[in-house]
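Render this sequence as a predicted structure.
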Amino acid sequence: MIKLMENILFWCSLSCTILSVQITRAQNLLKDYIQQGLQSNQIIHQQDFMLEKSIYALEEAKSMFKPNVTFSTTYTKADGGRTIDIPVGDMLNNVYSTLNQLTGTSSFPQLQNRNEQLNPDNFYDAKFRVTQPILNAEISYNKKIKSKQIDLQKTEVQLYKRELVKEIKTSYYNYLKAVNAEKIYLSYRKLVVEGERVNKKLFDNGKINRTAVIRSKNEVSKIDASIISAQKTKESAQFYFNFLLNRPLSDSIAVDEITTLPEQDLSLMDNVSAREELSKLKIAKGINEDLTGLAKSYLIPKIGASMDLGSQAFDWKFNKQSRYYLMGVSLQWDLFASGKNTNRIKQAIAEHHAIESQTGYVEQQLLTELRVRQANMLSAIAQYQAAQSQLTTSQTYYKDVALMYKEGMAIYIELLDAQNQWVDSQLQENIALFDTWISYAAIERAAASFNIQK
């Protein structure tokens, strides 16, 4: 007796170990597929490019704090326009005449009055200008906003990844559901084909009437149609799964048997604090606070420094007299803007209130979604347990009717009804099993509990 109990315990332990290995292997296969999907999905690549763009935008904002050097040059050719009269002759000719008389020479010539053009003719100005902001609140807030926009884009990428994981899991379970359904139909076809053969033999021996033969032949045609439908369903699931992984649609999919329910400890997934939707609203709130600060930055004056190093002269001359430098400090302070700045602040504050209101609504909405997903999971588990019970009952019923049919105590219609009940129970149990896994994937999505590497 003790030896018998030891053998029973050994085989139970071995069965549990084999089942555990099968489940782990199946989950590892799915994890590998998820990683493939995350690495190859084109939408994620597009989101990554948008993230890269946001990073460059932040670098651009940082560069606003650094010196800026520009080179500019102008050349002016002019004729006509306004002039200025310079009475040089009227002012100096009398003086020069007196000096010539006193010296007895003609060293001091008579001068003509001048008429000079105001527009510079044949004049150039070339310079390097260095500018450096010293105090500028707008630049500081712009940098903060760009930094938060990077976090916002990262969250957007993470949000799409989480949705993709759920879609990959759901499509994988739908594929397994279709594969198992095809196996059930193929197994059932062997049964009805054998029934058709036996009925023909019994009819030839005059033991049954033609009705059983016709019915068994129709049953073969019916199951053939069901097999084709199951194959097309499997093919569609295969196409969609490969599409999510960005693979050729006809690529084969490795499968393993999943015969148990997922872990049912739903208490570990009972809040929505990890949802990316809430993170996006939190970041948006931070951006709005920076926009409010940006709107108020007009109260702080802008101070900057500049220096010009250049050369300007007529006739393209370049010498000590043409070279110059010019240094300066500028201050700009907006004192009056007809309410423009005040209205900007009010807009930012109104947006802040809108985000706060939206956050509460979205959080409640996500929590409601999680509760619905959990209820669906419990319902799917109940459906699976009922399907298992129905499968056991229908299998027993089929065995009993099959035995009675062999002994001539039941007609073929009764046997066919038992067969159909048994097959339907297998199909319902298969559907219910994978519906629980699909529901579990939906809960993972609703609670954002699946660990996605960032």
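Summary. The longest strand covers residues 123-135. The two ends are 57 Å apart (CA to CA).
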